[in-house]
Design goal:
Largest sheet: 8 strands, mixed
Number of strands: 14
Number of helices: 12
Radius of gyration: 21 Å
Number of domains: 2
Order of helices and strands: HEHEEHEHEEHEHEHEHEHEHHHEEE
Helix content: 40-55%
CATH class of the largest domain: Alpha Beta
Shape: globular
Bound molecules: P-hydroxybenzoic acid
Length: 385
Amino acid sequence: MNLFKITLITAAALATSVASAQGAKLKVGLMLPATGTFAALGTAIENGFKLYVAEQGGKLGGREIEYVKVDDESDPSKATDNVNKLVKRDNVDVIIGTVHSGVAMAMARVAKESGTLLIVPNAGAGAVTGPMCSPNIFRSSFSNWQPGFAMGEVVAKKGHKRVVTITWKYAAGDESVAGFKEAYTKGGGQVVKELSLPFPGVEFQALLTEIASLKPDAVYTFFAGGGAVKFVKDYAAAGLKKSIPLYGAGFLTDGTLEAQGADADGLLTTLHYADGLNTPRDNKFRTAYATTYKLQPDVYAVQGYDAAQMLGIGLAATKGDVSKKAEFAAALRKAKIDSPRGPFTLSRNHDPVQDFYLREVGGKINKSIGIASKNLSDPGKGCNM
Ligand code: PHB
């Protein structure tokens, strides 16, 4: 290496350490949906993230936070360009995003290649913490496999023998159904038909007619956001709610109950959050969120809040220096994250190891009626690190 190069590298290293030592602002890239079927989910994540930062006086690891935002539209075809805007144009220190699994996979690819820190506050794609796992990639949410697996055990124990599944045809739907099927068939059940439609379609009518003619003992579904609102309403309008019990990953009824109204009453779902947990930690969070935003929090708000907590833990350990990746990761790997959902740790592939609540809808809330699966850990298939 020649002297010129060494001087350049030293100058760059010096610039970085001076920047963090002087407490230059930490650039956080928020890549979330602001439009489309998942728009409300993106808003809740951003609200939750900013609430935690505000509670810390606007600073994490001693550094003030500056936000750069991109609307990813939940569109995988635009995802690589969108994440590159944050990494290459805006030079962000950390990326927070996103909701949609297909978009998140493109983000993980760029994060792995560039070494940029990525915290995923929702998307459950197995690949992100599986084959694409990396020391700089973390998730504050769940893996798609988790709520599906938890519900598979519940439905098998209820004694339902024949189930039809219905979802959007993309990573999240496929993986949620696969998790369900794994536990449900192990428990003696049979999935007689797997129905799907392209994301973010809501033309459910033909599929509901097919369910009526198949007459299964129960239906398992993954839908979320605007699509979940319409599915629950259409399922009831088709007259199926009375005859064929509907079970879902909890996204089906989270952040959606105002719009679903009575059509959601009585639905059972599994998720790592519920209303009415009534713990001091959750009550404090819910009061702060409701006071700040004049809205009730949901699972997405919690995941955004916890993404900020996780960033704070890593930055506290590195005194605000994101380039100290090994120390950042080590701090998170041994952390117990004090989440409103209940405390959780991270698995070796950086996914939350957490309890899954069985929830029942009533009076426009998702009330916890017990724990469906305790300390459930994603298997992390394909992760070598
Ligand atoms: C996903 O695409 O991974 C996804 C989207 C919305 C949810 C949950 C998972 O509510």
